[in-house]
Write a structure and sequence with these properties.
By secondary structure, the protein is of the alpha/beta class. The protein folds into 2 domains: 113 residues, Response regulator (Rossmann fold), CATH 3.40.50.2300; 100 residues, OB fold (Dihydrolipoamide Acetyltransferase, E2P) (Beta Barrel). The chain has 7 helices and 15 strands. The chain has a 5-stranded parallel beta sheet. Strands 10-9-8-12-11 form a 5-stranded antiparallel beta sheet. Strands 13-14-15 form a 3-stranded antiparallel beta sheet, with no helix packed on it. A hairpin with a 2-residue loop joins β14 and β15.
């Protein structure tokens, strides 16, 4: 069984590494001290089991599980008891409290062996072929805007700036109104002030996306849904 360890404490990683070395049937592929860095690895490698700490910087253990559409088998390793119920809701294999004795570790990994393999493949997405258009008022006339020409929208109270591939348009109305007119398969709200066209994202990290050189923040409320989408398209 291929395993990884995600824990920001070097000592905890060392303990789990030693336990795995003396346990038949388990191979440690890699360890991470940051859950965000582990996301890409889990999506691109054959990982059967993750030893996952809860309290970590940038992305905590529960958020890590929520981001993955098809997470591997998870064994929580933490010094805190208060997350037990939330972890159980996400169907983790076991919940180990630090310091982790070998007999307790062994019981947890044997339980993982008895469970059926976790689902790892994503469902294919329905291709989007339509290019909707809208007419936006500009003075006394209204001009046609194609949905596929929109890169992102920035809202500021009762006004909205629509950033296009060839320029931008300022319109009256709030961000929610305009953002909800667009195809949900193509656009996503990633911040209270921003809707973005998903196919226009040039790069990303855990806090921001970049579109045409513009850095756009990711709001905490919208981070999980965005990361789920981005990881499905990360090689």
């Amino acid at each position: 069984m291929n395993c990884i360890i995600i824990d920001d404490e070097a000592l905890a990683i060392d303990v789990l590494t030693k336990h795995l070395k003396v346990t038949e049937g388990f191979k440690l592929l890699k360890s991470f001290q940051n859950a965000f860095e582990a996301l890409y690895y889990v999506q691109t490698q054959s990982v059967d089991l993750v030893f996952l700490d809860i309290q970590m910087p940038r992305i905590n253990g529960i958020q890590f599980i929520k981001i993955l559409k098809y997470p591997p088998k998870i064994i929580i390793t933490t010094a805190h008891k208060e997350f037990v119920l939330e972890a159980i809701e996400h169907a983790v294999v076991d919940y180990l409290l630090k310091p982790i004795p070998y007999d307790r570790f062994l019981a947890a990994v044997n339980k993982a062996l008895e469970l059926p393999p976790a689902k790892t493949s994503f469902n294919s997405e329905t291709p989007i072929t339509t290019n909707k258009f809208f007419f936006l008022k500009e003075g006394a006339t209204s001009i046609k805007i194609f949905e596929d020409d929109i890169c992102y929208l920035h809202g500021d109270r009762n006004y909205c700036t629509i950033h296009l591939r060839t320029g931008k348009k300022n319109v009256r109305g709030n961000l929610g109104y305009y953002g909800n007119q667009f195809s949900k398969e193509k656009f996503m709200r990633i911040h209270k002030s921003y809707f973005v066209a998903l196919n226009c994202i040039d790069k990303y990290d855990s806090d921001s996306v970049w579109i045409n050189g513009d850095c756009i923040p990711i709001g905490r409320t919208y981070k999980l849904a965005l990361m789920q989408y981005l990881l499905k398209h990360t090689l």
